[in-house]
Amino acid sequence: MTSTLSVTDAAAPATTGGTRSFARLLPSSSPKLIVGLIIAGVVIVWGIVGPLLVGDPHAISTNAFAPPGPEHWLGTTQVGQDVWAQIAYGTRGSLVIGFVVGLLATVLSAFFGVLGAYIGGVIDEGFALFTNVVLVIPGLPLVIVIGNYVPQNQRGLFLIAVVLAITSWAGSARVLRSVTLSLRNRDYVAASKVSGEKTWRVLAVEILPNLIPVMASQFVFAIIFAILGEAGLSFLGLGANNSFTLGTILFQAYNDLALTQGAWWWFVPPGLVIALFGCALSLINFSIDEIINPKLRNQTRASRKAWGLTADQIQRLEKEDIK
Amino acid sequence: MTITRKRLLFGAAAVAASAALALTGCTSGSNGNSSKAGGTTSVTLFSGQVGNFTENFNPLNNTGAYLQPTNGVIYEPLFYYNKAKAGKPVPLLGTSYSWNTDGTELTVKVRQGVKWSDGSAETTDDVVYSLNLVSNNPGLNTSGTEWVAKKTAADTVVIDFPTTSFTLEPQILGNEPIVPQKIWKNISDPTKVTNDKPVGTGPYELKSFTPQSFVLEKNPHYWGTGDNAPKVDQVRYVSLANADAATSALEAGQTDYMGAFLPTLKSIMSKHKNLSYSNSPQATTALFTCANVDLGCTGPQTDPAVRQALYNAMDRTQLDKQAAAGFSAPASSSLLLNTVNKSQITDPSYLEVPQTANVSKAKSTLEADGWKLNSDGYYAKDGQELDLTVNVVSGWTDYDTICQLLQGQFKAAGIKLAVNQMAQNAWSQAESTGKFEMSMNSINMGVSSDPYYQYSAYLASSATAKVGTPAPSTNTSRYSNAAVDAAIKQLATTNDDSAKQAAYKTIQDQIVKDMPYVPIYVNSALAEYNNSRATGWPTQDNQYAFPLPWGGNWGVGIVLKTIRPVK
Amino acid sequence: MRFYLQKIVFYVVALWAAVTLNFLIPRLMPGNPVDIMIAKMGAAGQPITAGTRHALEVELGGSGGSLIQQYGAYIVNLLHGNLGISLTNFPEKVTTVIGQALPWTIALVGMATIISFILGIGLGMLAGWKRGSWLDNLIPVTTMFQAVPYFWLALILVLVLTRVLSLFPYAGGYNVATTVPGLSFQFIGSALYYGFLPAVTIVISSVGGWMLGMRNMMVATLSEDYIVTAEAKGLKPSRVRMTYAARNAVLPSLSGFAISLGFVVAGSIVTEQVFSYPGIGQLLFTAVSNDDYALMQGVFLVISLSVLAANLVVDVLYGLIDPRTRARS
Fold it and tell me: Looking at the predicted complex, does its ipTM rise above 0.85?
């Protein structure tokens, strides 16, 4: 939330008029970005391919609480299920939730944030009011209650995703609205309006491209939020029904006393996968941030040098810093 | 204002805090669990309470929301009915009782010389008052029958019933707390009072209460003497959020008495020599089926042959080992317990359900009924595949495991099983209203081990309703059988053992044939004890009271007055 | 004037929405308290006879009348501060039950949020001021902690610090055997000791967000013209950092802080479960799993109101410290 907020104000001045090369939209290839993309890529590929490579995650054996070994790479659960196979399916489940929520939340926030702000007037006021009200309704408790309300046999992955999306778009919508409001009043938008461009065309050509980096960042955040939210919900036993996610594995592990058994192989890996994936997305977001907010890029010591400070002065400044 | 100063200040605060922590750490380490702080002996009990305690010591309301020690420890009934073993009721505030021949009049001799915990005398009038209080209050009287108690002599109470009521005996004698008239006559609504200063006759009385923990102390006016009097000075009740915390507390020696299913119990016991446990299997875990087409049930399980096939297709040895950690006991197809109720099981073949799967028998049962294997390896009839759904509460791990295992076991017999994990409230609603095919649940003993309570609650037509309407009692399978109804009625109206035995036979013959509840095993009920501060806890072989420290178990009072401090 | 009118409309609508949602949700949920109660009584070996259901219905009281009538009664009760009777804690009032749990949550999560905010803002400011320093490079690491499920972090901490090393207690709010709640040094010390691990979990998993936000705002602010001017004037760097840069950079974080204080009540449901902490989170969880509608509504109301109140504080604060907010109208 904090990061999203900081994005608001930072994004407002990020504009260019006339010529802009598309290349500037692409993240610069910093080490952060590369590491982030590699980790995220590995997790995603694992989520897609993994379940095809492992055995049945439900299969019960008499080999309970077996530590990791050649037969079970990550040991077994209390009823002898293979943890490695469960994690493959769980990763897939969590990723599905993450991406579905990411997409839905982005679409919802764009609809309420961008459209309202662009049209203005009563619709904007109404949308803004609605957004703000949704924002103050507490999310997790609502999700818990809705999750409990939904008919059990329909409480699949997709439904949990929809519920999470419904409670998570409002913050992004508020940010998008303020960015759109500032864009709407730019000269080049006014110019294209005056020159008789159609409304949808102004929106699509002049405004949306400027929003893409912000929305990309929000999308990435929504994925992290959704995966964490689902894990929390599942951990309370209110998650998706009859399907594996990393959260349901953690729930099972905790419920079956993996902790007191010292069966670390059961509850450490699922959390690690979530942490790794979330970390990778954060790294990607750093790079997106730098596109949205050019100031994050140029304000380095090198630029300070460009102000004409001597090496002496810089050293003095550094000493000050250390104090 | 500079950041440096702020950080310094914050650092100082952190140091102060950690110093405080270190101090308390020391104190709690040195005397936190001492049993003899200042010469008083104390045990700690975990009753399964999750979250804060609510200060509610009202022994009368039915919601079970009263605190655990209210029934049995602070308040006592007239007699104690031990469900863990067969035998006569133990006299508490009553000393003896007798019925008239047609079961309409129950005469009770009341113990004399008993005092309330405030020191005043408990009298026969209090007993009369307490019994009538329940009878006259529709919110308290769960029996559906109104009775009238009156005092006929200084130590005698006679209770009159409108009809034959042998079966109400354990309810009235063993499940109604005797409360002081002088206090309760001033309470306008006994269902809604929290009674935060309880005055009872039990072995312990309330000493102090906080929402996180409360302490009972020995009742100095208790009527029992010698072995029958409480010997440990204090009992502390604590709350823990889950099995994980409970296991830690047990291993760390921070609880002395608790009742939790711990799958790893055997390894815990072997690591800690001062711990012991007892297992009192009591509730029969079964596949509840919505069995009765006439009342609106739908699905393949309405066919008795399918239910028989399920019964034979189960490999119960595997279920016990993997779902119950080996702690369950074999069930009986009579749905009674083959331990406590052994003499009431009327045919040796009903004593124990098959422990291994008999796939060929399951298949031949189905084939004889017209089911045929299809190309997918499942049976089908009239174009409909033998595809069943079982509801189970997600998070009840042992049941979840059973369902997963059954999926595989049934598949071998050509039966497809879908497992539907759901939240507890949705699950209980589906079962109560009959909108389910099968449901994992357990058959519980009633107020005593008398089979009547189980049979009338789970099999009588009066205990069920049409699909769509909640069952008034627990007959959620919608089972309805005129012969069984007649036999249950017979049980309710006779005190004659041979007549009862004949009725049991009728019922058992019918349900073994109809199988509305497919028994799996008798679920474990584990209680754990720490013997380093107190001894004399129940053991596996000597369950002098039903030992689980749950709300509503009157036996806890017996356990707490039996244990003695370690010298 | 229009600005204030908008705000007032917002608060009225939000309050109404919260209250109405609160009314509707439990009524849309499946299950019925009497069923749950019968299931529980059965499991505890209580007799279930044909009269049981009737007695329970009498005892618990049915919710009669049409939906509109119920809604009216609900609003009237609410205005009287009457949140009904909790079923799981029958016959205790919901307000009493919440009153017992609330202080624990506010103390634990509130303290943790404040510590996390101060720590994050301080470190973020330094990282933004000295871009490329080791502290700045630490940012991705702390952000990583944000991506860790906090209950999982809690589990790991519990495993290492209470199981392996026995440094901290495994559960509860304070040592119930040696202390009683009160303003004694011993009790507060014990509560701090028991709250330490949950608090550390919350701080570790949330400090990264504050740090990143502050650092980015700091960097952005540092390239403003007035900072360049200030540096050119030769002001002391510490003065530029604190008075010119940090003061302006902290504004968005401050509003985030106020809002997150509002979420204090709702934010720790899962953590409280892991640590058996006697707070609101555990209460809500018990209420949901037992169909305790009244308690659920009460907890929900408290959460919604605290979030709204926090928003109000933000609005008022912003109006005071940032004149541009008012000028917009």
Answer: no
